[in-house]
Amino acid sequence: MDALLHQIFSGLATGCIYGSIGLALVMIYQATHHINFAQGEIATFSTFIAWSLLQKGWPYWVVFVVTVALSFTGGLAIQRLIVRPVERAPVLTNVIVFIGLLVIFNSLSGWIFDHTIKAFPSPFAQDSALATRFFSAHELGTVGVMLCVLLGLWAFFRFTPIGLAMRAAAQNPESARLVGIRVSWMLAMGWGLASAIGAVAGMMIAPTVFLDPNMMTGILIYGFAAALLGGIDNPAGAVAGGFIVGVLENLLGAYVIGTELKLTVALLLIVGTLTLFPNGLFGRNVVTRV
């Protein structure tokens, strides 16, 4: 029974990561109606920046804040300089741009920081008071950090004028323009927030899986599964989907298919969701009059 509970709680901890990546994918999807295939590589590059600052002796939480700020700025710059010029281009053009960003950031990570696997420190000591029977200190700390990020985002979008403007720009750009909202800048801020969320997820997952240029490849697939399962147009659904994916991955990997095939859980969830629940568990049905 203890082993089962440990798998469930560990799945909830990793589910926070998957949910945050799913949330970042949903934010980009709401802005562009495309999936950002480069989300994982951008997060990995941000994590490498954090690692390099830690190697210089910077305190962890100072590095954390600086990395999140740099990631936000970088995401905003990507939208203004690369994505904005092709936002009205055909779908295939946007897909090629996203794949190009994936290749570029993956190559930059290997070129600048090399391809050797690196240990990334955890800010939560193993013998700290956070450790419990079912959670390691890092797992519980990860849950706390990611929940703070998610609650902060919810408050930002719910109560601040900029957050409300971003929601309006994502849901109905034409109407938002009519009331004076600068839609293009709101979408750029959405890219910045998605990159910042990815950076936080990368710094939280790196101590568990180690750091290399391909670190987030599998995590992105889990995040994509979470976004689809919860509803690709529903930010809260993506977070809930992350918890479901994390727990299912752990339980099936431990008791059914083995750890070597855990990634197939995400792939099966993607195929099953697209086949049986195209709008996800919490997505909304869209009806178009013809």
From TrEMBL:
It is a multi-pass membrane protein. The chain crosses the membrane at residues 6-28, 60-79, 91-113, 133-157, 185-209, 215-232, 239-257, 263-282. InterPro entries: ABC_transp_permease, BCAA_transport_permease. Keywords: Amino-acid transport, Cell membrane, Membrane, Transmembrane, Transmembrane helix, Transport. It is found in: Cell membrane. Pfam families: BPD_transp_2 (PF02653). It comes from the Bacteria. Coiled coil: none annotated. CDD domains: TM_PBP1_LivH_like. Belongs to the binding-protein-dependent transport system permease family. LivHM subfamily. This is Branched-chain amino acid ABC transporter permease.
